[in-house]
Amino acid sequence: MEPIQGTAHEEAAMATETITAEMEERPFWPAVRKGWRKRCPQCGEGRVLRGYLKLNDSCDCCGLDLTKTRADDGPAYLTILIVGHLMVAGMLHVFMAYRPSPMEMLAIFGFGTVALSLFLLPRFKGVFVGIQWAKRMHGL
User: In this structure, what DSSP letter does residue 124 have?
Assistant: First the structure.
C-alpha cells in the first residue's frame, strides 16, 4: 500500500495558500502610470495599444492576456469631462482678459479641444487597462 500523501486539512490549507497567492494585491499607482504611458501594466515594457485605440490581444514582452479588458466608454467619458472643464475655464479667462473676436475664440479653442482630446483619449484607455489589471477585474 502507498502512504497517504496528505490529509484533507493539509490539502485545504494548500488550496487556501494558492488562492491567497493568486489574489495578492497588485500595485495600483504603478499600473496606472504604466497605463498612462500606454505600456503593459504587468511588465511596463510591451505596448497595450496597437494603432490609436485598438487593444493588443496580449503583451509582446510578458504575454499578459489583454483580450478580457473592457474599457468601453470610460476613457471617452473621462476625456470629455477633463477637456470640457479645461476648455470652458480657459475660454472664460481668455474672453474676460483679452476680449478676442468670436472667430479667434473658435479657432483657438476648437483646435485646443481637438488636440487635447486626441492626446488624452489613448492615455486614459491605457489607464483603464492598468486599473483593471491592478484590481483583477474581468479575469486579468
Answer: H
The Cα–Cα gap between 36 and 32 comes to: 6
Confidence of residue 1 (pLDDT cuts 50, 70, 90): low
Q: How far is CA 55 from CA 1, 71, 90, 136, in A?
A: 55, 10, 33, 18
**Look-up: residue for cell 466608454?**
73
Scanning the structure block, which residue is given the C-alpha cell 495600483?
Answer: 28
Residues sharing a CB contact under 8 Å with residue 12, sequence separation 6 or more, in sequence order = none
Residue 137 φ/ψ region, left for φ over 0, alpha for ψ in the -120 to 50 degree band, beta for the rest: beta
